[in-house]
Every structure is written in structure tokens, then in C-alpha cells.
């Protein structure tokens, strides 16, 4: 079962409680980070070289996390792209410990990485147990 929601799922009729059930996977884009792309010579492990969340992005992530906790999503497996804005979003959701997963990394501006990254993500998703705890994926 899958749903696709607008950028901010603020409709109280959306079945967000479904996300707390075993085997559910929520993939979302990082919270608001002003600008577009990253500088040409950014370094994944150096947040000062990347486009990062601003105050409203941090508030977005906290608000979404609170909304998901309110519908029972409290012990998720949380995985994130290695980019700082995605990792910060994942931590601010406060839904569980955060692990980085390179298969969630952006391939924007690097089309040669697209298929390899998507193949790695497909392989990861295929390993998830259908009755496992909910999974949150934070990407781009």
C-alpha cells in the first residue's frame, strides 16, 4: 500500500496513523533548506560547505515529527541521506535513532550516479521485513 501526499500533509483526513503499523515505509524530502543544489565543491561530512536547513526548516521537521508521534509513530527505524540537511531533518523528527544510508543520497548534478543509487535503494527496500517496525527515509 502506498500514498503520496502534497509537500505538507496538513489534511486531518489523511491516514497518517497507517504509518505507525508494522512494515510501513515513509519516504520524505528533507525540510526547508533555502536555495538550490549545493556549491560545486561541497563535502558530505562538512556542513559548512552545504545548503542547510533554516529556522523554518527546523520548525517544519519538529512539527512533522510531533504530528507523526501523535498518531503513534514512536519507535521507527530512521534512515537518512548523508547530506547535513537530511540528517538534521531526520534527527529533528525525533522518531528514533538516525542511521545514514548512502542509497538515499542526492544524485542531482551527477546523473552518472542515478542508476547506482536507485539500485542500492531498491536492494535496501527489498530487505525490509513486511512485519518490521516502521521505517522513515529522509532524502532529497
Report on this model:
By secondary structure, this protein is of the alpha/beta class. It has one domain (17-35, 42-139): Phosphoglycerate mutase-like (Rossmann fold), CATH 3.40.50.1240. The protein has three helices and four strands. Helix 1 runs parallel beside helix 2 (84-93). The two termini are 22 Å apart. The model has no long low-confidence stretch (mean pLDDT 89).
The mean pLDDT is 89
How many helix segments?
Answer: 3
What is the oligomer described by this structure?
single chain
The helix content, as a percent range, equals 25-40%
Low-confidence stretches: none
Global morphology: globular
Major beta-sheet overview: 4 strands, parallel
> Looking at this structure, what is the CATH superfamily?
Phosphoglycerate mutase-like
Distance between the termini: 22 Å
CATH class: Alpha Beta
Amino acid at each position: 500500500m502506498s500514498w503520496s501526499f502534497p509537500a505538507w500533509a496538513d489534511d486531518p483526513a489523511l491516514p497518517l496513523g497507517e504509518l505507525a503499523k508494522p512494515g510501513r515505509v515513509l519516504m520524505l524530502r528533507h525540510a526547508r533548506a533555502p536555495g538550490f543544489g549545493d556549491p560545486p565543491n561541497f563535502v558530505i561530512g562538512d556542513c559548512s560547505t552545504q545548503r542547510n536547513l533554516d529556522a523554518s526548516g527546523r520548525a517544519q521537521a519538529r512539527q512533522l515529527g510531533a504530528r507523526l508521534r501523535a498518531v503513534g509513530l514512536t519507535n521507527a527505524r530512521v534512515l537518512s541521506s548523508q547530506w547535513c540537511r537530511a540528517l538534521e531533518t531526520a534527527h529533528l523528527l525525533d522518531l528514533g535513532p538516525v542511521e545514514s544510508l548512502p542509497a538515499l543520497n542526492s544524485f542531482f548534478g551527477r546523473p552518472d550516479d542515478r542508476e547506482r543509487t536507485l539500485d542500492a535503494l531498491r536492494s535496501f527496500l527489498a530487505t525490509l521485513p513486511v512485519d518490521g517496525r516502521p521505517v522513515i527515509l529522509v532524502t532529497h
